[in-house]
Fold:
Amino acid sequence: MSAMLRLFAHDLKLQLRLGSDLIAPVAFFVLATLLVPLGVGPEPNLLTRLAPGMIWVTALLATLLALDRLFQRDFEDGTLDLLALAPLPLEAIVLAKVAAHWVTTGLPLLIAAPVLGLMLRLDHGSYVTLEVSLLLGTPVLSMVGAFGAAVTLGARRGGALLALLVLPLYVPILIFATSAIGAAGEGLSPRPHLLLLASFFVAGLVLVPFAAAAALRNALE
Amino acid sequence: MTGLVGIRLSCRRSERVVFTRLDFSIESGGALLLSGPNGSGKSSLLRLIAGLIKPFTGHLEYEGTRLQDDPARHREIIAYLGHQDAVKSMLTVGESTRFWAGLYDHPSDAHAAMAAMGLSDLADTPGRFLSSGQRRRAALARVIAGGTPVWLLDEPTVGLDAKSIAALESALAAHRMRGGIVLAATHAPIALPGAAELNLAEFEPQGFLDDADAA
Amino acid sequence: MTTARIPLLHRYANPAAFGRLAAKVLPWTTALAILLLGLGSYFALFASPPDYQQGESVRIMYVHVPAAIMSEVVYGMMAAAAVAGIIWKHALADLFVKAAAPLGAAFTFVCLVAGSLWGKPMWGAWWVWDARLTSELILFFLYLGYLALVDAFDDPQRGLRAGAILVLVGVVDLPIIKFSVDWWNTLHQPASLMTLSGPKVDPSMLLPLMLMIGGFMAFFVSVVVLRLESELLARRIRAWRTATSEE
Structure:
């Protein structure tokens, strides 16, 4: 456990020192969402309807953007070899790295999302649900994305391939997150949707480390 | 049996058999020098002993434990130095050495390890300012700081000057004095008194892998 | 002759043995595929009645439904083979996943095209966000992802293993995707009377449907066996190449 915390802190320190790389995903998140009103026009009712979907679709893409820094650099400079040999299981390493990655990519999205909600005229009743859906959903995006990053490690044409592999797996999260926000906007209870998201979170926490660790072993062998 | 033993190891990389039926044994405090031409599998053997590559056949034993059956034990005893130094440009030498020492639960050993490789003055220098020899020394300090009994060193002397090689040699001697084991693949001469030699060329499979004509 | 070969035989697919097996199986499955597809097409096109609601376009179902079934069955078989490949390290299992994938992708594609052709007269649009079609589209991308991943490695063995892991993750995720798409569909559209699954299958339609499903299956087996054989041969050629280039 202490080794996991050490790795988490170490990775967090490394990520925070990336500087401008660090804000790229959240900048993309804001910018891409703001392109929508420019594309479809500023009509308030239309934006209100589009807001949950747009915020979530760009959140998916923003997460995707940052995935390559999860394992790629460690793989290239030999760190991943050493981590795989270190006295903690590869599954624990995956979890620690995903957690650090989420703090630097998922958490900023949570902070930026309400501002985007204001600009897109999200329903007043939807903000809490938006935040809860991001809080439950973005860690799953990071986990599923970590699997994608692990399985494409060492492959040619990594980036586009990663998107092709990961985006279909993101579909359930997108659906339940946006339907939760939609339900809240209509004055219905978002609870069932959010509970399903929570169950994805738990399932991801249990399954993803194994899948990603298996993929990493394959890449390192 | 004490020490590290490899029994009838063979290694397949993709569709090629690199070496077959390789046996070795090293008593604690001993050393083994791997030799052989390029592509004979020195690096593959080290990665296999490290646990990064699964042996195609055969197994490894350490102090009587079959390492395949006990991966946690396997990870505890190995320190591996590959071709890459795994030095992060954003971290200082001290930070990364302390991190690795901490992972192995020896955070206090980081200081001595850096001193052993003559890095004490560079402890606060970020990785991006290091020369290639200094990076290699940082990687070696990481090996030392782990405090594990088995060191696997793939070309440890690359980029090192005479003074650093001497520092490495005394670190290896000190490690073996404590009962540690060293396996090294190197082309450069390095003083490993009493080291056995293993020529990988002797274990090259004859012909090539094609099971059709064996059927 | 060499010591290397003896242990290898246990774990490695043996091309010669597989070639003998293929030579036995292939003529039968090929004949069966031609027979069933021929008979099925006859019944589907001529010897079955038009549907009282769907009219003649119901005949598209005889391609759409078998393709849809195969698209899922093939993915299931790939997942089973992936498990076998990962647990028992059986080389033939890994190769099967790769050999079956383009066929699965093709079935999925046929299913989508047939569904879209059926949708035009029925729904008045080439594409409707029907739950089944949408899931099928996502399945198609899962296939494409597998195909792209397996090809993206310089070491074919590594690509096969990465692909097998991906297929396993996909097969766990697939029911969740289907469930979520169904959920999404019921949220956004009131259930339509006419869905692609069709209301009920009349016995007169069941015969051509069964024939076509059998034909698709036999076709799949034949092509997979051929692809496995050529993959094993290609591997042998690669082995020769590396051997000669080293001398």
